[in-house]
Specification:
There is one protein chain. Helix content is about 55%, strand content about 15%. The chain is an alpha+beta fold. The chain folds into 2 domains: about 90 residues, no CATH class; about 150 residues, 3-Layer(aba) Sandwich (YojJ-like (1), CATH 3.40.1700.10. The protein has a 7-stranded mixed β-sheet with strand order 2-4-3-1-5-6-7, sandwiched between helices. Helix 2 runs antiparallel to helix 3. The longest helix is centred in the first third of the chain and has 33 residues. The C terminus is likely disordered.
């Protein structure tokens, strides 16, 4: 009998522990999504309102309690209206898990090709914006530009971002080993703390990384810097090694040298 009771107690403890861990994980993921958006202001405001309500309840401030209870429904409606983009982004990110969607990862050589083109553009001070698709599809973004469906090549990227071409102002979309489209329009970031010195390309790169799990590479026309935007964060002015390492890590690409080393070890 005691053994059965101990088993039940162990099961209950295990179940409660899983429940707590699941809630903690969910809260952490929501926090990561909202961290770089203006929704953080909503969280701070909600905490302040909660503290005021607790003080009013503890000291029995009847008038303040009555007012806050009456405005509760209105407050919720205001949240839904004002923070609609953040709420939409939250539900979009829920479907980004790689367990539910397949991605067409770029190969090591193809990333090197893109980086070579980016370095040339940086040298001649020509801006560019290149987006790597991961798990979340960019159908609407692709339809806003010109579909190409061409093999990745440095010459193609250099041609697209030449100043005389009609596609150089938009973004190039890369999916797997293909240049899917060019001249695409990206959503601009709504972050309030972005430096004013950053132009439209940087804001668009951050914007697409906020609403999807895509990775954006930016070459600044004014400063000749090369940067990456991912998960709503801009990694500014990276050198060649940092660019290659970061891109291949995010896009889950292994260098050919690493593969050769693995083969040698196995042999």
């Amino acid at each position: 009998m005691d053994t059965i009771i101990n088993i039940r107690n162990t099961y209950e403890i295990f179940r409660v522990l899983i429940d707590i861990l699941a809630i903690a994980f969910l809260i952490y993921q929501v926090y990561k999504i909202l961290l770089h958006t203006k929704a953080m202001q909503l969280i701070k405001g909600t905490i302040i309102v909660g503290i005021i309500y607790a003080i009013a309840y503890f000291f029995r401030l009847e008038t303040l309690l009555w007012l806050m209870n009456k405005l509760g429904t209105v407050f919720i409606i205001i949240i839904v209206i004002v923070f609609q983009p953040e709420i939409r982004s939250l539900f979009t990110r829920v479907g980004q898990s790689k367990f539910f969607k397949l991605s067409a990862n770029s190969k090591s050589g193809e990333i090197d090709t893109v980086l070579n083109a980016a370095e040339i553009l940086s040298t001649i001070k020509r801006g560019c914006l290149i987006v790597f698709v991961r798990h979340v599809g960019l159908k609407n973004i692709i339809e806003s530009g010109t579909k190409l469906n061409a093999d990745i090549s440095s010459n193609l990227i250099l041609t697209i971002f030449s100043k005389d071409t009609p596609l150089h102002d938009g973004a190039v979309i890369i999916h797997g080993s293909r240049v899917v489209a060019a001249g695409c329009v990206l959503p601009l970031s709504e972050q309030l703390d972005i430096k004013r010195s950053f132009g439209t390309r940087h804001r668009a790169a951050i914007g697409i990384s906020e609403t999807t799990d895509a990775v954006a590479l930016i070459v600044s026309e004014e400063r000749s810097t090369i940067s990456i935007a991912f998960d709503g964060i801009l990694y500014y002015d990276l050198d060649k090694d940092e660019l290659k390492k970061t891109l291949k890590k995010i896009l889950s690409v292994k260098d050919n040298l690493e593969k050769q080393e693995e083969v040698e070890v196995e042999n």
